[in-house]
Each structure stands twice: as C-alpha cells, then as structure tokens.
C-alpha cells in the first residue's frame, strides 16, 4: 500500500445555496450538535456547543447544523450564539460556514429556527416530514396528499420569512415509496427548497440500494438539476459510511455526518471515515470527488467531541481510534518498521496525530524482536545480540500474563531497571 493522503487540500468552490460550482466538490454538513446530541447521554452545555462549532469551522465544515431551536430554550440559545459568532467569523481562506437549524414542518418550529439562525451570514432552515407509509400512518396519521401539502406549504413559508437556503428532508426515505418521493421532492423544489436530503432514518438500506435510490431520484425528480442532493445515513446495520459514499458516487453533493459517528441508536456516518475515504480513494476509484475538510484537524475535533459528550471512542474505531492508524501489533510490526512510514494507507500526520501518538507499534504478546528493539531504541537503549534475546524472552513471559500495552510498558521499565 502507498501513502496517498499527503495530497494538497484543494480550494473550496464558491457557495451558492442551490448551485454546484464544481461538479466534483462534496459539501460536508456536520450534525454533531443536532443529531449527534440526540445520542443518549450526550447532552452538551451551550458553551461546549459553541466551542465545538468553532472547531467544526476550523475543520472546514461547509454547513454546521447547530441544533433544533424549538426543542428547548438552551438549544435555541446555543443555535443563536453559534449563528452570531461562528456564522460571522471569516477564516484565513475567506470561508464562513452556513449555520443551519432543524424544524419540523410546522410554522412554530420554522419561526423558532429562523429567529435563531437569521443572525448568521449564511443561514439555513432544515425542515423535514415522514414520507414512508409507516411514518405517515403511525407517526403522523396523515395521508400522502396531506403530507405533500404540509411539506410544500412549509418550504414556501420558510422562504417567505426571508431565508434563501432551505433544506427539505423526506424522513425515512430509505423505506418510502419511490414514486411518492419523486412527487414530493419535485413539489418542494417548486416551493423553493435548495437542498434535498435523502434520509435513511433507521439505517435500513445497503450500499447498492442506497446508491440506486439517489440515482433514481436524480433521474426521475422534476427540477432536480437545480438543487443539491444530500445524504443522511444512520448506522443501524453498520452501513452508514458505505451508503454515504455510494450516495455521493450516484450524484449527492452534500453528505450529512457527525464527528466520531455519534447519533441516535448506532449513530450516523462518521465525518472522519467519509472524508478520509474520499481523500484516500477519491482520485482513483471514487469519481474524483473531494471535500474542503482540513484533515489535519480531525483528531483535535474527535477528542473534543469525545470529552464533551462523554461518548468514548472505541480503540479500533476507523481513523480516530487509538489503535487505528499509528499502531500495529503482532506479526506485521517488522514490515511496518522496515517500510518507514509507507506501509499504512494514511500518514498519521494527515489526520493531526503528533509525534507522541506516533509511537508506531503497540507492544504485546504477538510482538516480535524488532518491535521490541525499536521501542527500546526510542527509549534510549541500544540492545542487541544475546542481551536482546534475554530481554525478549523475559518480555514475552510478562506479556503472556498481561493484557494491555501499558502493562507491557511497565514490564519494559522493570526489565530496563
Ligand atoms: O434521521 C433523520 O431522518 C433525521 C432527519 C431530520 C434528517 O435526522
């Protein structure tokens, strides 16, 4: 494998709500502060949300979904503060993120959303309504005709308030009747929607199916070429990242994601996974698609979200897990050491790992002699020959009884002493 992630960041195209100025550019819509916060136990304070929003802007996120203002006073306050501060801060590249607020298809929700986001330079209202038969019958108790009327009138209402960037989500689109989707999406475009977000609300679809859904919507919805298609993939079957990538390959130019993949139930597509997939494989197999994310700030954002939400990242989590990139255990340690940085597909520096994180190999019972030698070398001990054999034998004996790398470390210190 080669390292390909040192590719330069490409300039971000100009933002016009419903216009694709570069056909290969994929907008990143982060919903850590809204859908992410819906994870049980992930509630954040207003100050923490503001800090995360600044971090997301630093990362280069195009759209920050800051919250659901009608849901609580605190949420309204957080969205307004983020709109005022983050939504008016221009970065070194001249970029200001869009600040978005969620609203159901109701005047009350839309008014609350608009009051909170209108302070941003680029405000967006995101409104949604259930479109699957299950949602319409059991949640909304509405007919298709009533849902259609509600969706179009509420998009029109949001536009009439003065918001020129309105996103519409057909909730549970992954299980909805396709003909109905084409119809409702076509009507909300006429009513003024600028982004259509295809939500796989319960994470039901698989990649080939979700990709086809996006392609079918693109081919069959009247007026679709004048708006942006978006994906919102939940992770109930563990398919969220793959579905998002398939959606982008089929024509979506906005992806909805969260840091560390947090969100309701099994979470959402993880920003770091989708972005690094496009960065590593975009050029060769993913149609040349790219994002404007500054990937060197990924680890910083991940750590902040982990700390503020209390949702710990599993060690083997792709991209940001402690074991994911900089460490290799067991039989491949030799090749990693000999390849001097060319073995793994991502350069740790490219996601913002520092030298400390770059210990390179994690020691354990599967580690070989060269890994141990390398680590001793890093610690300042040049051991070889019989002396190394002796230390190695004693190291293995301790590892047999210890589970964690930290224990092996303690043992190394004992051996050294
Ligand atoms: O999962 C979902 O359907 C949502 C919508 C509001 C986009 O979060």
Automatic annotation (TrEMBL):
SUPFAM superfamilies: Aldolase. Residues 26-299 form the Pyruvate carboxyltransferase domain. Keywords: Amino-acid biosynthesis, Branched-chain amino acid biosynthesis, Leucine biosynthesis, Transferase. Pfam families: HCS_D2, HMGL-like. InterPro entries: 2-IPM_HCS-like (IPR050073), AIPM/Hcit_synth_CS (IPR002034), Aldolase_TIM (IPR013785), LeuA/HCS_post-cat (IPR054691), PYR_CT (IPR000891). It comes from the Eukaryota. One of its GO terms (molecular function) is 2-isopropylmalate synthase activity. GO terms for biological process: L-leucine biosynthetic process. One of its GO terms (cellular component) is chloroplast. Pathway: Amino-acid biosynthesis; L-leucine biosynthesis; L-leucine from 3-methyl-2-oxobutanoate: step 1/4. Its EC number is 2.3.3.13. Belongs to the alpha-IPM synthase/homocitrate synthase family. This is 2-isopropylmalate synthase. The lineage of its organism: Eukaryota, Viridiplantae, Streptophyta, Embryophyta, Tracheophyta.
């Amino acid at each position: 494998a080669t390292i390909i992630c040192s590719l330069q960041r490409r300039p971000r195209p100009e933002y016009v709500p419903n216009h694709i100025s570069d056909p290969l550019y994929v907008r990143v819509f982060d919903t850590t502060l809204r859908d992410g916060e819906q994870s049980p136990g992930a509630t954040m304070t207003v100050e923490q949300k503001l800090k995360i929003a600044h971090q997301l802007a630093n990362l280069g996120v195009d759209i920050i979904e800051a919250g659901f203002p009608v849901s609580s006073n605190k949420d309204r306050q957080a969205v307004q503060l983020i709109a005022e501060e983050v939504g008016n801060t221009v970065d070194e590249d001249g970029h200001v993120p869009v600040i978005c607020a969620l609203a159901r298809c109701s005047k009350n929700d839309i008014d609350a959303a608009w009051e909170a986001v209108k302070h941003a330079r680029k405000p967006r209202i995101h409104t949604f309504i259930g479109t699957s038969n299950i949602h319409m019958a059991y949640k909304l108790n509405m007919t298709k005709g009533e849902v259609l009327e509600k969706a179009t009138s509420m998009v029109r209402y949001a536009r009439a308030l003065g918001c020129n960037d309105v996103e519409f989500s057909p909730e549970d689109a992954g299980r909805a009747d396709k003909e109905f989707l084409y119809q409702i999406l076509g009507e909300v475009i006429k009513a003024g929607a600028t982004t259509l977000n295809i939500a796989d609300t319960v994470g039901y679809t698989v990649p080939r199916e979700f990709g086809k859904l996006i392609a079918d919507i693109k081919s069959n919805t009247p007026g679709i070429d004048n708006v942006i298609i978006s994906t919102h993939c939940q992770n109930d079957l563990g398919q969220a990242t793959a579905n998002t990538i398939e959606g982008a390959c089929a024509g979506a130019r906005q992806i909805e994601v969260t840091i560390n993949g947090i969100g309701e139930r099994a979470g959402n597509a993880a920003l770091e996974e989708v972005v690094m997939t496009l960065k590593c494989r975009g050029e060769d197999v993913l149609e040349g698609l790219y994002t404007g994310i500054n990937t060197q700030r990924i680890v910083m954002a991940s750590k902040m979200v982990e700390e503020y939400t209390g949702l710990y990242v599993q060690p083997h989590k792709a991209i940001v897990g402690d074991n994911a990139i900089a460490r290799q255990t067991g039989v491949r340690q030799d090749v990693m050491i000999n390849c001097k940085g060319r073995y793994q597909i991502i350069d740790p520096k490219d996601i913002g790992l520092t030298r400390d994180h770059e210990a390179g190999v994690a020691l354990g019972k599967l580690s070989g002699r060269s890994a141990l030698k390398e680590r001793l070398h890093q610690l300042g001990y040049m051991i070889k020959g019989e002396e190394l054999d002796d230390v190695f034998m004693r190291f293995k004996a301790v590892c047999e009884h210890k589970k964690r790398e930290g224990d092996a470390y303690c043992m190394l210190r004992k051996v050294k002493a």
